[in-house]
């Protein structure tokens, strides 16, 4: 405790006494913060692992290596593997158009890119059912041609692309805005082609912003539940992603297995947070 | 003008990048979303109203909006404290605490849902101390509040933190040298500066909670009229092939979250203009 207090003084040492709170108030506020975050964030995190390992490591390992769990893992990887690159290509194109050129309706375009964040995941799933489901607009046509989008993998990918749509663009736009277009213009006047300017000048200067967007996009793509749940149809071993597998196991009162599979997603979340913190630090030190 | 036009198109790829952006945006987002409005416009006013305003649906609105508002309010209070502590004080493991604030963004909602349910169930880590006193959290409206508070936690912290860190110390100094106590300075000088960011964070948390599904379905118990949130009702209608009902309710929810975000945007641009 004494150590904590001396570090506390070091931290606020830059501020004169009149510009900071009495030490007792500081301690109360820090304790309230830690208590709040502890109860709302750390306890649930710990409970996932406690429940997952409640019956020992053997049961845990068996739960995450059984065929249905493995097929859920595979489907999640495939879904993220398709939807993240799609949104990366879109994010780069959108950021290039928005930051390097002036045109009418730019503000509207930026607002529209953010739109999916305002849409409930359940509604994101619903709109694809309305479009491609058996009773949807394209439903009869798809059925006539024997194409199945809803209650199948393509629907899951579509819904995931929708909910993760803005992540990369939204991180890249401010970064590209701040780097401006001068470097690219210089490269072009020196005779570089359009693509090589992009690969050698633009991409290196925005790589941290891009990586940041990819990390967030991937976390959401792998963890999406509501939208995917609407379009998946919950066919075991076929259209279940990891989050859906967690739900099925949980609803069957197979709690240990549910938490074991959930712990995989929890690891993903922890890795995401660590990578995010690492990129943030890199980025703030970058020139 | 001519000069400017030339300068505008020095860089290549305008047509390609903008064309692809608009195409992809239309195919993935705009066209799918528009089906919702066409479909609900096709319902006719009377059908729309009877679907979107039936007693069970209205009960779900009341619950969803109420719990989302309360959750955002709780996050508004504690988010301010957390943001203040992270931006102004140094304490052991501050960096780690700072990183963990984003957990609700990174943790899939289904995982959050089952973890919170396990904790607050009558035999759970927290539930077992509340159950003897007759306090029920899991499978009751309070559980919904807990889940919605969890998923909205980062918003207020993350909107306030940079504002607190970049606040000009001169103003506080001036207030202090004019004889204001620390409390007066906070109440009259600091808080008014934080107000726009706080409101933005609050509204973002509120809007996010309105649409939340994954973390709530496990803990809520899903009893019609009592603990049934609106997004769940949309799924229930869909599972019964009641597309008209699902569409009407979804349109109401979508319109409300658009309205909230529009309010945030206008508030933000107004406060930016005020600063200039």
Count of DSSP helices of chain A? 15
The proportion of strand residues of chain A reads: under 5%
Q: Assign the structural class of chain A, choosing from mainly alpha, mainly beta, alpha/beta, alpha+beta, or little secondary structure.
A: mainly alpha
> What string, H for helix and E for strand, traces the elements of chain B in order?
HHHHHHHHHHHHHH
Number of helices, counting only DSSP H or I runs of 4 residues or more of chain B: 14
Detail the poorly predicted runs of chain B.
1-7
Largest β sheet strand count, sense and barrel closure of chain B: none
Radius of gyration computed on alpha carbons of chain B: 23 Å
Helix and strand sequence of chain A: HHHHHHHHHHHHHHH
Relative strand content of chain B: under 5%
Helix content of chain A: over 70%
Structure description:
- In chain A, helix 4 (67-100) crosses helix 14 (242-251).
- Chain A has 287 residues and is mainly α.
- Chain A is 77% helix and 0% strand.
- Chain A has helices spanning 2-12, 23-52, 56-65, 67-100, 106-114, 121-132, 139-144, 153-163, 166-179, 182-189, 194-205, 207-223, 226-232, 242-251, 255-285.
- Chain A contains 15 helices and no strands.
- The radius of gyration of chain A is 24 Å and the shape is globular.
- Chain B is mostly helical.
- Chain B contains 14 helices and no strands.
- In chain B, helix 3 packs across helix 14 (243-275), helix 9 (141-165) crosses helix 11 (182-211) and helix 11 (182-211) packs antiparallel against helix 14.
- The model of chain B is unreliable at 1-7 (pLDDT under 50).
- The interface between A and B is large, with 103 and 92 residues.
